[in-house]
Amino acid sequence: MKKILYGVCGIGNGHIYRQLPMLSYLAQSHKIMIFAYGDSLKFFSAYFADHANVRIAEVAVPYYVGIRSGIDFEASAKLIEESGINYTAINSHALAAADEYLGQADLAISDYEPTTAQYAYAHGVPLVTIDQQSKYLSGAFPDELQGTTYVDEVVRLQMFFPTAAARIACSFFKVPQRPGSQKVYLFPPVLRSDFRRHEERKPNELLVYLSAQQGLHQNHASLINVLAQESSTIFHVFLPKNASLPLVPSRNVRLYHHGDDSFKFLLETCGGIVTTAGHSLLSEAMYLGVPVLALPLPLYEQQMNAKIIRLGQFGLSSPSLTPEVLNQFITNLTQYADNIKTDTKFLLRGDGQHAIMDFIEQQFLSSTGA
After folding, report:
1. Closest of 65, 158, 55, 82 to residue 114, by C-alpha
2. Where are the domains of the chain?
């Protein structure tokens, strides 16, 4: 039995569901401490509450404001001051808890959670990073997309994880490597193990998922009004938990909050998805063969994800939802689905979970590894 410290970012559900299959696998035969905060802290505290091999410790990670040239440290300092959170004390308690439970760990793994890296550096423990941002350290990407850059992503990675025994990046699309760049291992996305591909989908039912992140060009009411005009289609609209669910004057629009139990089934059976262009949901959509109408936020990652949808003709990309764009998307759902199924140029296919676990086992957890 090896001793592993495993940190998971606490912003949104994407990090949780990417790491859950691997944490569940490792916890079968290894001693695990999870560093978590926000959504990940709440989820893993409940999920592993009675697990003999797993302990949870709270960490706190300040947000560093990104700008075109990197990080706005003055704006970041203001956010930290206004938060009233004692980040140093919380993280020191977590590091003490790791020392008590694990002692000297054999391995540290982090999904964009920097306190885990601090433990690894302090103890001389191998650090493996697993995220989707690390592809920007080595990939040949456009310098700018729709006024956004990935410079802030690179700066954060260099701040949080200046060195690593191995950097793993997950991506639903292929990434050409930049000559002379550092080594980053590219793997397909890690997805929920219980997804079911349905051959017969419902073309007259679309899933609509609106991120809690700010930046969408339309407010919810405006977007829902566009959906209501397409009366021949049923729209299942998922809004952030803090958003009110207004009365909708249309029988074809049904409203839910993020986290509703019906989301997974609707994702598996819907004819298409209208969504902001986050990595996790687009990865799931491409795996399931579901066309996407992407409404990317003004973030480089979302602009890049939407560009792949557009280039591969796996759906559409638009800064806002209009009746014309929505009608075009619905009219061509069958062709978009065929393009996803037959693509060999853009999509990175395969089982990310098992490939990554095999890599970590062989390199760091076997008797001949680390």
Report:
1. 158
2. 3-189+350-365, 202-342
- How far is C-alpha 222 from the geometric centre of its chain's CA atoms? 27
The model's pTM? 0.91
**146-197: per-residue pLDDT in tens?**
999 999 999 999 999 999 999 999 999 999 999 999 999 999 999 877 777 7
79 token code pair: 């956010």
3-state secondary structure of 5: strand
Kindly report the CATH class assigned to 3-189+350-365.
alpha beta
Interatomic CA distance for residues 56 and 4, integer angstroms: 12
Indicate the pLDDT class of residue 235, thresholds 50, 70 and 90: very high
Q: Looking at the domain that runs over 202-342, which CATH code has it been given?
A: 3.40.50.2000
Average per-residue pLDDT for the chain: 93
Question: Could you give the CA distance from residue 189 to residue 172 in angstroms, rounded to a whole number?
Answer: 6
- Cβ neighbours, 10 Å, residue 232: 7
